[in-house]
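Task card 7
Instruction: Convert sequence to structure tokens.
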Amino acid sequence: MELMMRNMFQSLGKSRAANRLAKKYGLRFGAARFVAGETIAQSIAAVHALNQDGRVATLDHLGEFVFSEEEALESAAMCMQTLDAIAESGVTSNLSLKMTSLGLDISRDLCISNMKRILDRARLYDNFVRIDMEDFAHCQISLDIYRELRQDYDNVGIVIQAYLFRTMQDIDDLDGLAANLRLVKGAYKESPQVAFPEKSDVDENYKKIIQKHLLNGHYTAIASHDEAIIQFTKQFVHDQQIPNQQFEFQMLYGICEELQKQLVKEGYRVRVYVPYGVDWFGYFMRRLAERPANVWFVLKNMFK
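Output:
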């Protein structure tokens, strides 16, 4: 039953028709728990509230289903406006983005051009941009573009997914770049030919890549709500005498609030991934697919 629900939500998240319907009705049925709003102003207010109790953030202007150069340029403009708003408001936040929203599926050159404009704007404000990793089909080209960007920019990082077989090799390959990595388990439906099908194997690989990247001496963002993984990391950095300045915990907006606050009290840096925008449906469906408890939250809201 759980697998069937997960597959259903993942399929819905890729539906353009469902996405159009969601835009029409707005952030209803519980989506507002996971998405900070549809406007930059709403997202900045959400980050300000996080900053007040010691959490930092990374803002993501949600964008999927980009199929024209015009849409890609609009998405890039929104990323730059988000960086402007962060600087003007004084909140503590980075920027996260998906390269498909910048035209990756249209033209590699278009995507790189948009990325450079965004990174130039971020550098102006001494800010940092994180490239989100997408499905396996976009993995290699995303890493290739990241390596190209690192020739000119040091204010950019990328995401690595523990559920892929290739991930340990990717960690090794990125070592020479001193890459700032966000390490995640992975949220896309992938073939067992390229990804671990069993959760236990994903968890084990996740621990291995956390250890490897930290021991390589590079900045590591551990993005997980799994308390076992968080405890494992805390014990590992303690045993290896790795300073808190070399890593941070990252969690999603609206999930595990109390755990986030507790980690801050314990002296750890906690960064909250704060998505916003009208194109929120695909992101919301992936959150429902990840965790069945989120589905019951939504169902309760439907009948309020």
